[in-house]
Design brief:
By secondary structure, the chain is α/β, with parallel strands linked by helices. The protein has six helices and six strands, in the order H-E-H-E-H-E-H-E-E-E-H-H. The radius of gyration is 32 Å and the shape is rod-shaped.
Length: 182
């Protein structure tokens, strides 16, 4: 991202926009004096100050923005002490300085287990609603290939080859006893 030629005159103009809620000043050459033009803006909620040339003196402006809810300040020039003071003084303000992950874990992937066994083509994890309930073909007694399945009485039945489902469907009661019970 390249710097845009934004300075104090542009921010003075932005400060006069009464409905301004978000302002992205990322990678601009603004400093403390230019940012001060936004002080006391009544509705500014989000301010992106990443990759700017600020100093700790900009804290006064950030404190003076009553509606500010989130600010991005990574690589902005603010010191660790200034960030700590900002977080302490305005605890409801979300400060993204690139130093603390604030996202909650949404999902954890299962642990990867390496084995010497080759997986079956099209194999589904145990407990999957589309995984066969049986491990041996009810027609031949051979191992099930999960590519060949049919639904029978609300359950997925697996077969060893493409011919066995046809045989099974011709007379399911003949093979139903070979299936696992619920």
């Amino acid at each position: 991202m390249t710097s845009a030629p934004i300075g104090a005159p542009t921010l003075a103009l932005a400060a006069g926009l009464p409905h301004l809620r978000r302002l992205d000043l990322r990678a601009t050459k603004i400093g403390d004096a230019a940012l001060a033009k936004l002080a006391h803006h009544a509705r500014l909620e989000e301010l992106v100050l990443a990759q700017t040339a600020l100093s700790d003196a900009s804290l006064a402006t950030l404190f003076a923005l009553p509606a500010l809810k989130r600010v991005w300040v990574w690589h902005s020039g603010l010191s660790d002490a200034a960030l700590a003071k900002l977080r302490e003084t305005r605890p409801q303000l979300r400060v993204d300085a690139g130093d603390k992950p604030d996202a909650a874990v949404a999902e954890v992937e299962p642990k990867v287990v390496l084995t010497s066994e080759a997986p079956q083509a099209g194999a589904l994890p145990p407990g999957s609603p589309d995984a066969p309930i049986n491990t041996t073909c009810p027609v031949t007694g051979d191992p099930v290939n999960p590519k060949f399945t049919v639904k029978f009485e609300g359950r997925v039945v697996g077969f060893c080859c493409p011919n066995c489902p046809k045989t099974f469907e011709a007379d399911p009661k003949l093979y139903a006893a070979k299936l696992p019970k619920n």
